[in-house]
Design goal:
It is built from 9 helices and 8 strands. The protein is α/β, with parallel strands linked by helices.
Length: about 210
């Protein structure tokens, strides 16, 4: 669904409002190793006083999808593991690529992650330009064109069957190098356990 200017202004406004409440997610962010600066750069927030139409997302982490023209979508993540569903999106919103601004700041290589938190981890905390998709089945054909000019594309594949299948599917479309994570792990869990050096060592073997 194509957005008009007023819709994007509403998304920008909601993002700014929710960002003022990010302190409410401090325990969650700390548990994930996400610094205040990384949260600020990603414009993360908490839905404390929902905008009209956002009532179902109350108490959730807001994750805006930011492009050069502003915020084009917001997804909402539960801050507590017992709350389901873990992620929610706005009605009628189309799946989009996350963190697309990294495409322009990247050099010869870029990463791809499954999930926004993992993408923030690689991009802001590890320091490797990275884009993401909401899930392993969210890849769209035109994403391939966006990344076609990179000499190397690293896929940080979750340590489960969907993660492995995601990497395999991408290898049919792009010259990917798969960084396969251990069974049961994802990017953020490995970052919390091993730090950024784990990923720099993995990527460094390919002399980027």
């Amino acid at each position: 669904m194509r957005q008009n200017h007023s819709q994007r202004e509403l998304l920008d406004s909601a993002t700014a409002k929710y960002a003022t409440n990010i302190f409410q997610a401090e325990d969650y962010l700390t548990s994930r190793g996400i610094t205040r600066e990384a949260a600020r750069l990603a414009r993360l927030g908490v839905v404390s006083e929902p905008e009209v139409g956002h009532e179902a997302f109350s108490g959730r982490l807001s994750i805006p999808y930011i492009t050069k023209s502003g915020v084009v979508d917001i997804r909402f993540r539960a801050l507590h593991p017992a709350i389901e569903p873990k992620y929610m999106g706005m009605t009628g919103a189309e799946t989009k690529m996350y963190n697309v601004l990294d495409i322009e700041r990247a050099g010869d290589y870029i990463g791809i992650c499954e999930g926004e938190i993992d993408t923030i981890t690689i991009s802001s905390l590890v320091g490797i330009p990275c884009v993401g998709v909401p899930g392993a089945n969210s890849w769209k054909k035109h994403y391939t064109r966006l990344l076609a000019d990179f000499e190397r594309v690293f896929v940080f594949a979750d340590g489960d069957q969907p993660g492995k299948e995601f990497a395999t599917a991408l290898s049919r479309e792009l010259p990917v190098t798969t960084i396969q994570l251990p069974d049961g792990e994802d990017v953020n869990s490995m970052y919390v356990k091993e730090g950024s050096s784990y990923f720099h060592k993995k990527v460094g073997t390919y002399e980027v």
